[in-house]
Amino acid sequence: MSQLKRTTLRQVADHANVSPMTVSNFVNGRFELMTSEMREKVGRSVKALNYRRNYGAHLLRTSKLWSIGIIVVDASDHYLSDGYTTQIVSGISNTLNEKGFSTLLQGVKPSEFGTSNMFRNVQTDGMCVLLSGSDEQRAHQFDLIRELHQPTVLFLEEPDEASDAICAVMQNDYSAARTLTQHVLKRQPNSVLILTSGENEWAAVNQRVSGMRDEIRSNGSVGDLYIIPTGDGRQRDVIQVFDEHVSKHGHPDAIMCINDEIALATLKALKQAGVNVPEQTCVTGFNAFGLHDITDVTLTTMRSPAYEMGQTGAHELLRALEDGRFEQETIVMPIELVNGTSA
Amino acid sequence: MSQLKRTTLRQVADHANVSPMTVSNFVNGRFELMTSEMREKVGRSVKALNYRRNYGAHLLRTSKLWSIGIIVVDASDHYLSDGYTTQIVSGISNTLNEKGFSTLLQGVKPSEFGTSNMFRNVQTDGMCVLLSGSDEQRAHQFDLIRELHQPTVLFLEEPDEASDAICAVMQNDYSAARTLTQHVLKRQPNSVLILTSGENEWAAVNQRVSGMRDEIRSNGSVGDLYIIPTGDGRQRDVIQVFDEHVSKHGHPDAIMCINDEIALATLKALKQAGVNVPEQTCVTGFNAFGLHDITDVTLTTMRSPAYEMGQTGAHELLRALEDGRFEQETIVMPIELVNGTSA
DNA sequence: ATGAAAGCGCTAACAG
DNA sequence: CTGTTAGCGCTTTCAT
Asked: Is the pTM of this model over 0.90?
């Protein structure tokens, strides 16, 4: 351990018998300002003393933090458990790290937003945020973020108010949901069950449900539409909620789930109940993740490029850091239908 | 945007007509050093000027960064795609964030380790690392980490050399693999196929394979043992590798996969080939993840508490930060057998 | 091409 | 209780 004292620039300078300034130039790669022998001499001393610059002092002078905060709002402790979120985060952090930025990651519960130390002690040049929670909670989260006066990329939803310090990177969940629903409606179902997530409330999920509902309504041929949350979205909950629904209202002709995990659990519940898919009913997912085709009946779902979304957001943020403002308010990524055998 | 000039401590002091020191005390919550009217007066000025302290200057004086680096070494871009890793990371970051620490997350390829800016520009008080790569690569990674002279928690493997600046938090993969293998050997298989991961090389995986091999050898009743890597571990690769093996050597009596994802893909390949599980052959996984029971044949696998592992590691790190050294060199978390229907 | 001086914004230590 | 002094380690600016 021995945190002792780390080597300072001055110590290196003394060791090499040069001025601190020359060492500073060396450390910052300004080699054109010195002879090659000087460069070598200083290099030796730097290596010999295992010098690494003091981040705080450097920061005080340059006031560029080279660090971006990533905030993921999630109701559960396991804020990285969702494969989709996780891919976005990978895309962001890889892109930023490549450009020399550090990424400060923080998972936060909707109710605890604002008490997080990212707000008390700002140490970032910009922000990437994935919000969740009720509409009011998300609006509150959004306000706090604005007060930071940092360039911010908002993922998966649009800000209430536009601003040249904020950029939204999203997919068009509403329109994708309508597309998927059109596909399902070809089967002319009389009853449709929409299974949403429970604990977590994401703007994207609301958009999907709206899209499905609107498409069904405008089509007009569906008799019964049920929209039901599935507890914390885990398999056991989904199966229980589903079975309960069936015992009350019978088997629906089509089941649309707002994500793939819920869809897989539903497929399992149907299997256990001896209902054949896609003959007797059909099932759809959303946000195709790695295992959407692991079951023998593969999922019909929608896919959008989550990792690329992270990359895109990160790039925009870096550009905004340079230009002082975002060029675009909103960037919409494409979503495509993944044709499985489940619908 | 308008980064303009942020308010300084001195400006607040002038605004409130007090000395900078009093403002500093206020900002740092040392209220016992001032009268309540003074506290209010300063508080008003702080609020009015929207003062937030300069992180660099603060750092320069206090030299406590309040930030911990998390490095995940992974051969692919999607370093957060593995659910197990992801849970560990959640556990670490939640625990640290609660205690007021920031977490700097960085995914790094085995070959690029060391060029990462976490090494060039140390801005952390401690480290949490998940290594992967060949033995030499991991040894090299480990050396670089030691040179940082930071308290470090190493996950999922043991360091070559002990040190009071390093603590290993792991599960006993070797012994768990033997336990699981004993379970499989009850079926008295004549041929056993072990499917390992391909692209990524984790110490934990090597331990598992060793455990399986040793148990099988010491048992002595198995005729043929095949150990085969599965490309990048994705479904398509696994199925292809598996089918290829079968066409050469026929169907094995037991298939042990070093993780659940590979096991699920194998189940699918068997289904497609019309082989019944567990009647005609059996399949096991490892590191039970959320979907180990999503298929109709549920996986027999091993489970260990990944999230808790992250929590434990983070706690130890914080203790080490206070005490100047780790109390324990190694912490081993329990692993339990999850009895599914696949074996 | 190299060096000297000054000061970034804050807080520890001490003085009043 | 409040204020003054000094300096953390670095880099910008200007002089040599």
From this structure: yes
- Does one domain contain both B95 and B123? yes
Q: Between chains, do B87 and A104 touch, taking CB under 8 Å as contact?
A: no
- Looking up tokens 């150990």 gives B227
Q: Is residue A184 part of a domain?
A: yes
pLDDT above 90: percentage of residues in chain A:
68
C-alpha to C-alpha distances, B124 to A97, B121, B140, nearest whole angstrom: 15, 9, 20
**Type of residue found at A296:** D
Say if residue A202 is in the same domain as residue A293.
yes
Question: B15-19, B253-257, B292-296: which has the highest mean pLDDT?
Answer: B253-257
Residue A146 lies in a domain: yes
- Integer Rg of chain B from CA: 26
The string of DSSP letters for A287-322 reads: S--TTTT-SSSPPBEEE--HHHHHHHHHHHHHHHHH
- Check whether residue B138 and residue B93 sit in a common domain: yes
The confidence score (pLDDT) of residue A4 equals 52
In a domain, A194, yes or no: yes
Query: In angstroms, what CA-CA distances link A61 with A250, B57, B237?
Result: 69, 9, 52
| Dist CA A235 CA A243 (whole Å) | 12
CB nearest to B97's CB, from A86, A89, A106: A106
Provide the token pair at A204. Answer: 């994207």
A320 touches chain B (CB under 8 A): yes
B337 burial (CB, 10 Å; 0-12 / 13-18 / 19+) is middle
pLDDT (tens digit per residue) in B85-139: 999 999 999 999 999 999 999 999 999 887 877 777 778 999 999 999 999 999 9
CA distances from A209 to A161, A195, A286, B129, B272 (A): 23, 9, 11, 40, 35
Is there a single domain that holds both residue A245 and residue A225? yes
The β-bridge partners of B338 are: B301
Q: Do B137 and B113 contact (CB within 8 A), yes or no?
A: yes
Residues B281, B186, single domain; the answer is yes
Q: Is the CB of B60 under 7 A from strand C?
A: yes
B264 and B311 share a domain? no
CB-based contact, A319 to chain B, within 8 Å:
no
Could you tell me which of B30, B31, B8, B32 has the C-alpha nearest to residue B20? Answer: B8
- Residue ranges of alpha helices (H) inside B252-301 are 260-272
Domain that holds residue B321: 67-171+306-335
The reply to whether A89 and A122 lie within a common domain is yes
* pLDDT higher than threshold 50 for residue A2: no
- Given its phi and psi angles, is residue A188 left (phi above 0), alpha (psi -120 to 50 degrees) or beta? left
| CB-CB under 8 Å, A100 with B102 | no
Model pLDDT for residues B56-73, shown as the tens digit of each residue? 999 988 888 999 999 999
B77 and A307 within 8 Å at the Cβ level: the answer is: yes
On whether residue B60 sits in a domain, the answer given is no
Q: In angstroms, what separates the C-alpha of A179 from chain B's closest C-alpha?
A: 27
Residues A167 and A310 in one domain: yes
Q: Looking at the complex, does the CB of residue B294 fall below 8 Å from at least one CB of chain A?
A: yes
pLDDT digits (tens, 9 = 90+) for A222-273: 999 999 999 877 888 999 999 999 999 999 999 999 999 999 999 999 998 9
Q: Give, rounded to a whole angstrom, the gap between the first and last alpha carbons of chain A.
A: 59
Distance CA B122, CA A53 (A): 8
Number of domains in chain A: 3
